[in-house]
Design a protein that fits this description.
Elements lengths: L3 H10 L6 H77 L5 H49 L8 E9 L14 H42 L6 H9 L18 H17 L7 H21 L3 E4 L4 E4 L7 H6 L8 E4 L6 E2 L13 E3 L1 H7 L11 H13 L4 H49 L11 E9 L22 E12 L3 H7 L13 H19 L1 H13 L9 H14 L10 E7 L1 H8 L2 H14 L6 H16 L8 E9 L4 E8 L6 H21 L7
Antiparallel strand pairs: 1-7, 2-3, 4-5, 4-6, 7-8, 8-9, 10-11
Helix pairs in contact: 2-3, 2-4, 2-11, 2-13, 2-15, 3-4, 3-19, 4-11, 5-6, 5-11, 6-7, 10-11, 11-15, 13-14, 14-15, 16-17, 17-18, 18-19
Amino acid sequence: MIRLEGALRRAREDDGMTTVGMAIALLLTFSLVLSTAQVYRVLSASAEIQEVADAAALAAQNEVAEYMVAVRVCDALVLSMNLLGSSLYGAGVAAACVPAAQGLSASLTSMGKQVFAARDSFSQRAIAGLNQLQRALPFLAAAKAASLAVAQEGALGTSYLAVAVLVPAEGKEIQALGDAGSAEVAQKTEEAEEELQEAARAAEEAAQAAHEAKERAFMADCGAAPGYCMYERASRLAGLAGAANPRYESVDTWSFAVPIERARAYYAARLAREAPASSSLADQANSALRRQFYAFSVEQLEGAYVRDTQDSFDAHFPVLPANAEQVRASALYGRALFPVTAAQEGATLHAWPGCPGAAGASGLSSLAQMEAAGWAPCAQCGFDVAMMGNVAAASTSVENGFEHHYRDVALAAAEYEAARAELDPVSEEVKSLAGGLVDSIGEVLGNAKESRIKAEPPGAKGCVAFVVGGSSMPVDEGLATSFVQGQRTLGTRVAVSAATLVEDPSGEGRSVITSLLDGFAADGIAVGLAGLALDAWSALLSAYASGQSALADAIEGLLGGIPLDSQSNLGTWAADKVTEAFAAVGLQEPDLDALKPVLVNSGVVTAAGGDGFSARYVSLKEGALGVSGPSPSLFSSILNGVEADFAERIEDLEEGFEIARVELGFAGISIPLEIALPHATGVGAMGVVEGALDAVRQAYFEIVDMRVWQ
């Protein structure tokens, strides 16, 4: 130690001036500076252990976060396979409704069956793997914390040992999932497949016949324009245009009601414009009979109708007489429309009142009465049934007559009605069979939405980390002076930290889910229907991440890759039903934020734990804050329980743990689902953990000044 006398003597020898106070001030200054440096160094080295404890807690809790990522991936795969299997069955049902696509139907339903089988196999293995990993999770977290602490080298040669305990220490076992009704869908589909396809073929034949009849009617009405047709003839012969004489470019926008309205307008216009071509007796007689024919046609068309719905067709196109036989079969034959004169040799019927022979007519009579009584034709106009029939005969038998095309439309309408009479019942049969299958698929979808993999693993509430540190270097290393008295080490130090999981909206969780199938379709592993199915699966994984909108896109994409167009439209109808079933699922966008470990107070974690460790820890902490102090036996029981628990959890652990594997034979893919384990895993790691437990236990008893008997 520097002596005061020596300082004063040297001051005198140097001819300097000093005082006792100045010497004391110098001594105090040196002492305070060096002591402060020593205290700072000791405090810094002592505080370092808390940083290690925080890092150990975060590392341990990160194992739980990675486990939850694996749970969500498994859940995404199970849900997506439920959706994929259902969509393939739905597409198969839609394809069965189209004869041209029926060859694809069996392949689609077979793939759906394989997907459901793969789902069952995967879910069983995944749940078993997740449960196994869950049982090992407390040890994995402890090993991760222990290895991190061992790797730290602090100031003054400090080494660290850490023990991390998950809260709760025991998780809830994940229960096996049911088949969501897929077995019933498979059975119903197999039972109904042949009957459905046969009914669909019958419906398609009838639909084709109906389409051909409608096509002929369309061409006769306006489709053949500017060639001869009702539209062209009405324009030329009656001067009709605009709304009274519309033209349609496609049979898809045209209906049988169009020619009825066109005919009504045509005959009304012809009746209004009819006049004799000349003053000759023949032209006047023919004009008068045409007026009767037009008036009769206007009257008949008033009763014409078309009732065309999705499920039925009923129409009435009046048949206009074009010869004597047809006149006799029409209502025109029995109507009293013509003047009759009486003579000694018998009565005579005349074509119109202006006939010279009709002078003095006694009234009106009919063609039916004329033929029944055997009256002779008029010597002037020659009127009889044949003459009446000839009025429309020419324009009906040749294509430049309006009646010719009207008759073609009427005949086609009758054929269309007959085809629809065959189509509608078998169409209803197809809809009944296919609709029942789609309803069953909808039930699977509803069940699948609830049949999910959910986990409450160890560490769901957080973890508590205990860290022990000890120094090998003396605290005065590098500061050894007369002012610092040392050659002592810091001794044993203990720190406690805790961490829990919070959601991190970084998008990492979403990207893990949506990237599961990246590259498979692009690499050409599957082509054709298998490639279509794989594309749908990738889209359905996006549905897991994005909810209902992506689900709708996925099913529309799958159905859009199948040729469902047909004359019966049953394939399109079935596809719409399948789309509606998927729309009714109401798949909500899940919470896919990644879980991130954060530091919290240990009391927060253990208060939420509800297990034995948490209860003992809370009691220990309350005792430490109390007057009497904590119970050594209580702390020892905590660590003993942790150690015994770890010993049961290290079997069959490797650095890479395969939870399960997805295998789809038709797509030629096998996807392993693995989780990386800490490098310090296995029996060797148990020694590290046990050493840390012993160190924590020993440090506790040293702190409470108790001797431990080994």
